[in-house]
Amino acid sequence: MNRARRFISVVIVLTILSQISTVFAAVSVIKTENPFPEPVKIDTDENGVLNQLSYISTSTGATSGIRYRFTEGKINIGGFEYKISFTDIIGGAKPPSGVTEYYAITITKDDILEGIEKQYGRKLNESEIKAFEEGLKNPDRISYSATIEIYNANTGKVLDVIDKFEDIDKIAGKHGFAKKHMDDMKTRFNEQPLEYEETRPTSSGVRPTFIRSKSKDD
């Protein structure tokens, strides 16, 4: 595809995605006994189109009346942003006081398509699907982030909101959260370039690294 045709495809994809306000109801969140966060895995088909991404997040049970909750997640793939409601899935996780639980989150291409088609009220046509797949083909970067509310469990009052990784230590620390709670918050954030020719994992703090997984046909 030449540069002009790819630009047209990107414009089409942006037009489609800019109209999405729904969440991905089919996103998989499974409690796991894995004691450590795994690298984020990116699975693609033989054409390099995203099939799914998977990563691990953690939650630790509250030990005081000042608590935090995850209300929304954002996945950015190749410059396109998709929103996920955490309110009814991992945002509602309530492990016992002081106990850390692990959750495997998987988001598939079909989850994204389902969200688009639900918003449109119809199935995408052939040209729309083709443009969408071009937008997900070999993106150069994937990131995810979250909106975190710090609140008083007794009054329900929201005391602070965190939506940037670099604000976690400062804001959460101000409210007396222990390191393990701040580490949980950090598992909801990552931004890394993607390597398609080789795997070159890097790490920063508790944040997982990205690995491009080979397709089943590789």
Tell me what you see in this structure.
This protein is α+β, with helices and mostly antiparallel strands. The chain has one domain (21-187). Helix content is 24%, strand content 33%. It contains five helices and ten strands, in the order αββββββααββααββ. The protein has helices at residues 3-17, 109-120, 126-135, 168-174, 179-186, and strands at residues 28-32, 40-44, 50-60, 66-77, 80-85, 100-108, 141-152, 158-162, 190-193, 210-213. Strands 1-6-3-2-10 form a five-stranded mixed β-sheet. Strands 4, 5, 7, 8 and 9 form a five-stranded antiparallel β-sheet that branches. The longest helix has 15 residues, at 3-17. The two termini are 23 Å apart.
Overview features:
disordered N terminus, 5 helices, 10 strands, five-stranded antiparallel sheet, 218 residues, 33% strand, alpha+beta
Question: Secondary-structure map with pairings?
Answer:
Elements: H1 3-17, E1 28-32, E2 40-44, E3 50-60, E4 66-77, E5 80-85, E6 100-108, H2 109-120, H3 126-135, E7 141-152, E8 158-162, H4 168-174, H5 179-186, E9 190-193, E10 210-213
Parallel strand pairs: 2-10
Antiparallel strand pairs: 1-6, 2-3, 3-6, 4-5, 4-7, 7-8, 7-9
Quick recap of the structure?
The chain has 218 residues and is α+β, with helices and mostly antiparallel strands. Helices cover 24% and strands 33% of the residues.
Report the biggest beta sheet as strand number plus sense, adding barrel if it closes. Answer: 5 strands, mixed
Uncertain spans? 1-25, 195-218
* Portion in helices: 10-25%
Beta-strand share of residues = 25-35%
In terms of structural class, how would the helical and strand content be classed?
Answer: alpha+beta
Task: Identify the strand order in the major beta sheet.
Answer: 1-6-3-2-10
Tally of contiguous helical segments: 5
SSE order, as H and E?
A: HEEEEEEHHEEHHEE
Mean pLDDT over the full residue set:
69
State the end-to-end CA separation: 23 Å
